[in-house]
Amino acid sequence: MFEKQICIPSAEEIIAERPVPAALQTVKRERDKLATDVITGRSDKLLVIVGPCSAHEPKPVLEYVSRLGKVNERVKDKLVLVPRIYTAKPRTRGVGYKGMFSQPDPEHEENTLRGIRTIRALLLSAIEESGLSAADEMLYPENYAYVEDLLTYVAVGARSSENQMHRLVASGVELPVGIKNPMSGSIPVLMNSIFAVQSRQVFKYHEWQVKTGGNPYAHAVLRGRVDNYGNDIPNYHYETVMQVLESYRAAEGGLSNPAVIIDCNHSNSGKQFKQQIRIVREVMQNRAYDGDFRKIVKGFMIESFLVEGCQQHDVVYGQSITDPCLGWEDTERLIYDIAEMV
User: Fold this and answer.
1) What's 304's DSSP letter?
2) How does pLDDT run across 255-294, given as a tens digit for each residue?
């Protein structure tokens, strides 16, 4: 049984309420090109998607993004910084805080309509504050339409990478879409997902049958895997990355723009957030060691917020209420280190 609670306007109606001003549209187009140029290899810069595990309150997120914008001015000749503003949170057991999209106030009940409007306001303000357009996870594919004019990078999570609807919708996105390896860590499944997203598709989306041209910017994100006993197994090491490169080369039908982003947290770090620093440094050393490794590894995902660690309830300003994150000081230092090692 479904109890109808709130009627949600169409994406077109919501966007019309708060459209992107022309000046910010120009900023976003420039940012989109910076990100796509990294994935296609037209740019030697590294893509760094960095920010909180989940954006649960606008004010600290905007402060974080504002700080990131200042850092960007110092590293923009080496890095493309994309703030991670993740507004939907997957839950392993299906219960708990599911993100700003459905629950704009984590201490109160769900209100999806208010969540959508809060997110659009947040993403617009983030560009205004910092000049940086954001990344978000496509956890619920039909929701992408409400923010498609505001994002520069889209992620498809490990639990979603085998899902047909995620693959279909991602095929119509005109931005870099990072496809995470499934929880099992299967590289063949990951390659099949990338192939599906890069392919032309026809399907029902909202009230329409739609046709897509395929997304040539879809690429691999290595986030580690979980074995049959629940143990975290990393996959950012040299050997796995080179196996992914070989899988790209051997892909039946061919794949465009071979690229790997290393997710430094999750099963790669065992959610030991400080390990992200060591993981970045190891990957950068491997880029310096091997030209092929350097060519395919295009950047990092890093979970970071104003205050390190995490909390169960929103008490400490600027601290994650989901997975633990690096604090700002460590993050700033790490970004400068990456820029020096590029």
Assistant:
1) B
2) 999 999 999 999 999 999 999 999 999 999 999 999 999 9
